Amino acid sequence: MEDFNQPAIGYEQPQESILEELDSLRQSNKLIEFDPYPPRKSQPELFSLGRVQLSTLIIINNTHCKILNQYSSRFSLEQPLQLLLCNAHILVFLISPSLPTPTSPPQLVRIDLNEPSLVDTIPLLIPSLFQTNYQNKQPPTSIYRIHCDPTGRHLIISLESAQNYYVSLSPASINQQRAATQHSIRRATQASITPGPAIRLLSKLRGLLITSVGWHHSSFNGIPQSSTREIILATSTGALFATLLVDHHSQETNSSDLSITAAFSRIDRSTVDRYLKPIYTLPDSSDDPIIRGVWWDVWYQHTTQNRVIKRALAIIVTSGRLFQFVEQVGILKSRRDDDANDEVLERLFGSYQSNRVLPSWLIFLCITKTVNTLSFSSKTHQISLSITLESLELQATQNSQLHVYNPTSSNPQYSPNPPILSWMTGAGIYCGEILHGSQEAGDGVIGPSELIPFPLPQHPIAGSSSSPGPNPNTEIHHLPLALCPTEYHIVLLFPDRIQIVCRLDGRTVHEEILDLKPGERIRAITTDSVDQTYWLYSEESIFELIVKNEGRDIWKVYLARKDFEKALSHVDMAIDRDKILVSQADHYLETGKYISAAQIYAQCSKPFEEVVLGFIDRGERDALRYYLISRLERLKRQV
């Protein structure tokens, strides 16, 4: 028996009379413009795909840098670009000498895109970066990686020598650094150069090669704070550490900062790294132990006993494995009782550190040239899933990356959409929803997921005579350098192009050849997780990837899946809504849900005669009567 809400009808009218009245209305042209749903209020959408525009934002020719017309910033640039980051509308890039043995320090350049005329340059006066250690006969070291928090305020510079430095990008710190740098340059000798007030050695982190940082979830709102709050440091040995960094030069404080400051009142206020605690080490394995990505989050659940359960999760990836951690970390009377100084990470990893619980994990193992095995292990069960891929042998990749698109990053208000995980492996792009539910320690946190194979190029590869399509000799070119996710798509970066793949169906919706000079190669792509902007760069060029109206055609993907509710929620045009309703009603008719079909047919513009004949051919007179009466009532309301 079909469950439906039949409209209240207080009379019984012969079918012939209904047909005559409908025919009369049709002949009077009152059936031509039938709009079942009034147009929804259009909401501004952040992205557009299919009309992706790749435009040069900054052009660097080793002599000067000019931002486009809407920006007025100009400054001298005499060294190649090594790294670029963008967070909370703050551009930070690193320029350094290209000589094998540099004799001058690298420089950080900071540009607030809200005030692009103000350009701040911070020389990294770290002696080991540009001076030879004659005592140990060691040449200058190099920068391994720079990590920037989502607010664009806190930087961690990790050197190849396993030394780590903190850089504050707050206005107060930059002003002090500028004055100190001028004084240091006037008076310094080779032996007396000091980094300056904005650059501090993280002594507690000595010996750690930091490969990734899991920033505190509160930083993704883009509001600067004087401290990083609790963060995860991932290392090249598979070890995880918890720490908290405080900018002691900051003149900006808030309630959480005051709480943290009070908690460390007995510690020297000039200390940036207030503590360092080991929280977990990944289990030994034969694959690469280097942690390639880390992300963690906290969420709250209200109970029937007027209590709030606080839970935390963490996701860690190596070159071939993904680990999931989840734990209940507190019970509160209300959200207001949450302590900003609460040591969440120790509680999150406590059960796993003591081996009371094993983490859920995923691993990609190549067993043939055409089949990959996806294995899942948890505290209770283990399963294997074979996935057929149209490609050659795939393995774990050194380019393994973890990215999480969080819908609430660009919208401070609550978003019902879950965060989307994208993990680049040698087998393809593993995508899934991160679920904030009632999980306990040892459970997984990744919901509906799929593995998307890497797409083949649509245009010939630069420097290759091969044509687009499968070619074993050029398969290496099809592995991307990096990726970044949007709400519905994944941007893949290749040496000479970008490809944009729909996350929902794996289609390549756009390919853009990069306008590079001969011999110029793109370095990386970076994402502003707060403003959802995307940046590509080489040593000579910086590009901004602009995406608008991303959800414009997503309803078609859901319609092809027969997910009519989601299709309707992603459409704005009345004509497109009508197409969805017609398809939904046809589907119900074919699957025997005749009353549901009658309900939908009464709301859409499918020809009256076709609907009537469809019910008559199937002998469904009850559904036909329901359709006729519903259609007549709607027409009467329109007249």
UniProtKB/TrEMBL annotation:
Domain of life: Eukaryota
GO biological process entries: endosome organization; organelle fusion; vacuole organization; vesicle docking involved in exocytosis
Occurrences of domain Pep3/Vps18 beta-propeller (ranges): 107-547
Keyword flag Zinc-finger: yes
Keyword Protein transport: no
GO cellular component: endosome; HOPS complex
GO molecular function term, any single one: zinc ion binding
Swiss-Prot/TrEMBL keywords: Metal-binding, Zinc, Zinc-finger
InterPro entries associated with the record: Pep3/Vps18_beta-prop
PANTHER family in the record: VACUOLAR PROTEIN SORTING-ASSOCIATED PROTEIN, VACUOLAR PROTEIN SORTING-ASSOCIATED PROTEIN 18 HOMOLOG
Protein name in UniProt: Pep3/Vps18 beta-propeller domain-containing protein
Source organism (scientific name): Puccinia graminis f. sp. tritici
